[in-house]
Amino acid sequence: MKVALIGVGQAGGKLAEALSRDPLAADSVVSSLAINSARADLSSIGLDTLLVGAERVNGHGVGGDNDLGATVMRDDTNEVIDAVSGRVGSDCEAIIITAGLGGGTGSGGAPVLAHELKRVYDVPVYVLGVLPGRDEGALYQRNAGRSLKTLAREADATILVDNDAWRQAGESMDEGYAAVNEKIAQRVGLLLAAGEFDPANVAAESVVDSSEIINTLREGSLAAIGYASAESSPDADANLNTITSVVRNALLTGTSLPDATTAESGLLIVAGRADRINRKGVESAQTWLEDELGSMQVRGGDYPLDSERLAGLVLLGGVERSERVQAFLDQASEASVAEETPDATESLVNDDLDDLF
Ligand SMILES: Nc1nc2c(ncn2[C@@H]2O[C@H](COP(=O)(O)OP(=O)(O)OP(=O)(O)O)[C@@H](O)[C@H]2O)c(=O)[nH]1
């Protein structure tokens, strides 16, 4: 699936950089751009960059104020659309915006950018949005809640990445960020590569094309992505259990949004050497996934990969009702009005969290 990648804010830029460097994503990411209001943060990103809001904040960032993040993006919309227009070619099938939702520039800027891009382009606009970890302060939680609520309305889908998802004891903050960015790049890189429909690719029993990714993401406003892999045997018969167990691990321990096991739709991709992929294993993994997600809309396909390992990738569409989204929105609402909210789907539309615009 060919995409244009736009990172907004510091986390967004680093995530876009990690994804554009991922070997599997190389053919899919046709262009990339990092946008920020902080000049210093842009200087360390190895992508084309664009500074916004120079007139208001003089290159110093917005200091966690996401209303100001939205304002600087809106003020500079013309420059941003100009910079993006050379990067969204006719082969582009989607635009992906990456952003940390807890800060100011990415949190406020990403929904404005999604809104503007949707006015200009027909292709879907997705956001890869990082939720602050549970220990991050009230400002981050509230920012992310307001951003998410606005993104649920403006973007075609927001794939959520929980900064607590893969936290390891003893890791520094920067090491933790780098690990999350790499893991997301690996998952999204594989998803995009698998979505590159190649008719000459006779090795795959059933290929995935970009419309299946788009249809999976169409089923809701929030999404998550999971992955796991294991050593495989040269004998495909011996890989039946390997496939079912990597798919279980991809969903139960490997998702970008822990506890997201209720979804409107799913896409399962099994990657590995074609002669090692056990068809019965793929079918039973797909059935298990349907039961587990409570969805009859689980699509599936293979991605031939020259590796000794077999991998399972799951894309979940419509995870609004999952526990982690509920817990996050409760925390964000408490940070905002000190009140419990009844239901996650409801929180995305009620007035406990203000929209950004
Ligand atoms: N996964 C990940 N999260 C990050 C990274 N850097 C920062 N974050 C998270 O992103 C949020 C802060 O957003 P930033 O991107 O730093 O802020 P910004 O959008 O540049 O906004 P301002 O600094 O306020 O101008 C916090 O929740 C951090 O935990 C990163 O490289 N990877």
From TrEMBL:
Gene this protein is translated from: cetZ
Cellular localisation: Cytoplasm
Tubulin/FtsZ GTPase domain mapped to chain residues: 2-199
Residues reported to bind GTP: 10-14, 104-106, 136, 163, 181
Role of this protein: Involved in cell shape control.
UniProt GO BP: cell division; microtubule-based process; regulation of cell shape
Gene3D superfamilies referenced in this protein's UniProt entry, alphabetically: Tubulin/FtsZ, C-terminal domain (3.30.1330.20), Tubulin/FtsZ, GTPase domain (3.40.50.1440)
GO CC terms, sorted: cell division site; cytoplasm; microtubule
Protein name as annotated: Tubulin-like protein CetZ
Domain of life of the source: Archaea
UniProt keyword annotation of Cell division present: yes
Organism: Halosegnis rubeus
Predominant place of localization: cytoplasm
Family assignment from sequence similarity: Belongs to the CetZ family.
Region of interest (Disordered), residue spans: 336-357
An example Gene Ontology molecular-function term: GTPase activity
Keywords: Cell cycle, Cell division, Cell shape, Cytoplasm, GTP-binding, Nucleotide-binding
Membrane-spanning residues: none
One Pfam family named in its UniProt record: Tubulin
